[in-house]
Amino acid sequence: MNTEGLFDLSGRTAIVTGANTGLGQAIAVALARAGAGIVAVGRSPMVETEALCRPHGTGFRPVMADLATLEPIDRIMEEATSSGGRIDILVNNAGIIRRADAIDFTEADWDAVMDVNLKSAFFLSQAAARCMLADGKGGKIVNIASLLSFQGGIRIPSYTASKSGLAGLTRLLACEWAARGINVNAIAPGYYVTNNTAALRADAERSAAILGRIPAGRWGDPGDIGGAAVFLASAAADYVHGIVLPVDGGWLAR
Q1: Does domain 13-244 have CATH number 3.40.50.720?
Q2: How many C-beta atoms lie closer than 10 Å to residue 93's C-beta?
């Protein structure tokens, strides 16, 4: 098998949500390095993300959007295709978290997390798939799941439910769209140095307990996730459908 060019994303357009910071930013940069033009979606300015992507000579279009509602979806699609191109890759990375004991958890915190992490991810996938199917060329959808797609966790009931749901949704969409040329897969990050884990890292006891279980011996750096994203977005993964790929430093192996 000729593997030359399998990971080359030149000429492809990738939408990456939550691209302003953390894992989303790292994924956008990795895809840009592989040659993809980036449509970066985020709630805050993406000046830093653009500065990291631009040197690779690929297009970059920022779209300010809050995926707490479905309102931005049509606008994101329009921005992504405004120059006459198509949507080749969608990375559903945008996500939020709320922490409280299950006994005290509020409906507002439940709905906020489910709306961003699961509802918007589904309807953005639906919108992207319609574009991918329109010309019969298919595409790649990569959902950012979590270790909580496999485990229960503590004090994050809506986050755990949303990420478990996203893993299930990944499999369902793969079953429906694989034969139509769309690969739907997910990445399950482990414990990374991001805004979402700031509270955990600030708790010395909790942080030490987490680190003690990671075989790699360190928290993940956002850059560690880029290779998996490029793989699932590339021709190298053309026969990969419905997987949830842990990138966790070995957490699930212990």
Answers
A1: yes
A2: 27
H-helix or E-strand spanning residue 114: helix 107-114
Q: Which two tokens stand for residue 85?
A: 């191109």
Place of tokens 């977005």: 233
Give 28-74 pLDDT, tens digit per residue.
Answer: 999 999 999 999 999 999 999 999 999 999 999 999 999 999 999 99
The encoded tokens of residue 218 equal 């360190």
Encoded tokens for 186: 């997910």
The 10 Å Cβ neighbour count of residue 115 is 18
Global pTM value: 0.97
Local structure of 28: helix, strand or coil: helix
Give CA–CA dist 13/85, Å, rounded: 8
d(CA 162, CA 144): 11
Known catalytic residues are: 159
Choose among 20, 15, 16: nearest CA to 194. 20
